[in-house]
Amino acid sequence: MIPRRLLLPVAVGVALLQIGFLVFMIAGRASILRSGTEVTLQVEPVDPRDLLRGDYVVLGYNISRIPTSILINQEDAASNGEDRVVFVRLRADESGIWQPVAASYDAHLPEEAATGEVDIKGATHGSWSATTEFIDVDYGIERFYVPEGEGREIERNLNARSFRMKVVVDANGSAQIKSFHDGETMLYEEPIY
User: Fold this and answer.
1) Domain boundaries, position 31
2) Membrane-spanning regions, if any (predicted)?
3) Which of the pair, 77 or 27, is modelled with greater confidence?
């Protein structure tokens, strides 16, 4: 039992720890948005029958499914169902959409990214073998929150129009969503704080 005279200081200490944790999370996200490299990805629907779940939309990207032919360490490609980290090197094509050009399991690619390239960190799940042609990669940016009631409109138009997501990637490969676009028109922008 905590003595009554210590109750207030303990409560203040716990509150400060909780606030400090929240500030740490927000500051980390804001740091990526301020100083990372911006890339543009083509949005692809994951499941056109059930995209909206509450106030967010589940999305896939043109980099969500990468060919195993771009893996530099293919001898280590087989997996028995364990999750693995994968680093994917991206480069913009002529239309400004960033495409995967190389990938590596469990470690950064051996050569530094050239000017106009960026390495993004993701995770693979499930089993695959040396005969697998594509692997699915999650980057932590597959869930996009929308203002309440506006998700249905995006859901209806996702297959019909060209939606793009601007994503910021930091030096460690972590990604954060920056803004959501319908063609060249920005629909939503994530606030830094």
Assistant:
1) 1-35
2) 6-27
3) 27
